[in-house]
């Protein structure tokens, strides 16, 4: 009887092939212990290997050097460059902008979603809308940002399940007026479809759930400059409709960035909504 040979495969261990990137050691001396964006470059002048940000560029880059899981990227790297910023806000904005522009090989890709969707209340009814249809920066009653319609619809289903809402009142299914829905018989709907609770009670629970995802409209007539003061220098981040246009050191240079109107940007909103709406930063309204 012939014996079957079995092959035992070992799991890949990055530490076994890791070597300290001595060829990059010389770049450490020029890196500042300050906020900004850093870039690992390979042989290509067009596509960087990796773009990152930190409030301490030097410390963060050195942590890459000690990470065995990044051995492949470190072997491909030929040099490290950096771009200082006044603080964390500037670093976050510049990193997101550069990743979209250069599409680095080892970064999670940040692309401007062509199918960006949200949930909008129209006459009290949640409707899934697209950024192609309306201006998310100016529209009212928007809740959540989703990469496509399916994701937005799934969020509505999740809210319906967690809050015992009726799918028919959420626009997710059709039933005859006054008749209980199928989920009511399963104990998963509180009965707004058949009079067991009022539409007002149903709506209040829906609003409580949606408020956690509220998208704030752009609160200015046009572009603004958000001032960030760091230990090294001062930056003015120019923004319009939650879209980051760039950063300047002097107000006189901001006009050059405020020539092209930009649409809503999801990454810009996530980074800037807190700092702008908190009132903790100086805001300059630009003409």
Percent strand equals 15-25%
Measured distance between first and last alpha carbons: 88 Å
Q: What is the count of DSSP helices, taking H or I runs of 4+ residues?
A: 9
**Poorly predicted residue ranges:** none
The largest sheet is: 4 strands, antiparallel
Given the helix and strand composition, which structural class is it?
alpha+beta
SSE arrangement, N to C? HEEHHEHEEEHHHEEEEHHE
Average per-residue pLDDT, rounded, comes to 90
Rg result: 25 Å
Query: Percent range for helical residues?
Result: 25-40%
Q: How are the strands ordered across the major sheet?
A: 5-4-6-7
Task: Give the tally of structural domains.
Answer: 3
Q: What's the total number of strands?
A: 11
What sort of overall outline do the alpha carbons produce when their principal axes are compared?
elongated
Explain how this protein is built.
With 287 residues, this protein is of the alpha+beta class. It has three domains: 21-102, GIY-YIG endonuclease (3-Layer(aba) Sandwich); 117-215, no CATH class; 224-285, no CATH class. The chain contains nine helices and eleven strands. It has a four-stranded antiparallel β-sheet, covered by helices on one side. Helix 4 packs antiparallel against helix 9. The longest helix has 15 residues, at 88-102. The termini are far apart. The model has no long low-confidence stretch (mean pLDDT 90). GO terms for molecular function: hydrolase activity; nuclease activity. This is Excinuclease cho. Keywords: DNA damage, DNA excision, DNA repair, Excision nuclease, Hydrolase, SOS response. It comes from Sodalis ligni. InterPro entries: GIY-YIG_endonuc, GIY-YIG_endonuc_sf, GIY-YIG_UvrC_Cho, UvrABC_protein_C.
